[in-house]
Design a protein that fits this description.
RNA-binding; 10 strands; Large ribosomal subunit protein bL21; bL21-like_sf; 4-stranded antiparallel sheet; mainly beta; Ribosomal_bL21; structural constituent of ribosome
């Protein structure tokens, strides 16, 4: 079993070939290929965490589509002053599919 831990949009994700991730927005159209930097590689019984060896590892992924995350409601309220404000936010996200770990 081969899997890798990659850095994707400020987070670390465990990926295998064929896994689908939702990460923060990546510039590019659907069908484009992106390369993710590996932090750790597990190939059967061998574990690679050396920076020089990981520089040679390529984790490629294909951009599937752009989506938006769930709506988050931000509310502020101050007692006895009549102050209240409300704001909403939806994070831009991209779905990617890992196509290869080499």
């Amino acid at each position: 079993m081969v899997y890798a831990v990659v850095r994707a949009s400020g987070r670390q994700e465990k990926v295998e070939v064929g896994s689908i991730l939702t990460v923060n927005r990546i510039a590019g159209d659907s069908g484009n290929t992106v390369e993710l930097p590996a932090v750790l590689l597990v190939d059967g019984d061998s574990v690679t965490s050396d920076a020089e060896s990981l520089a040679k590892v390529k984790v490629t992924a294909e951009v599937l589509n752009d989506t938006r995350g769930p709506k988050i409601v931000i509310q502020r309220y101050k007692n006895k002053t009549g102050y209240k404000s409300r704001q909403g936010h939806r994070q831009d996200q991209t779905r990617i599919k890992v196509t290869g770990i080499k």
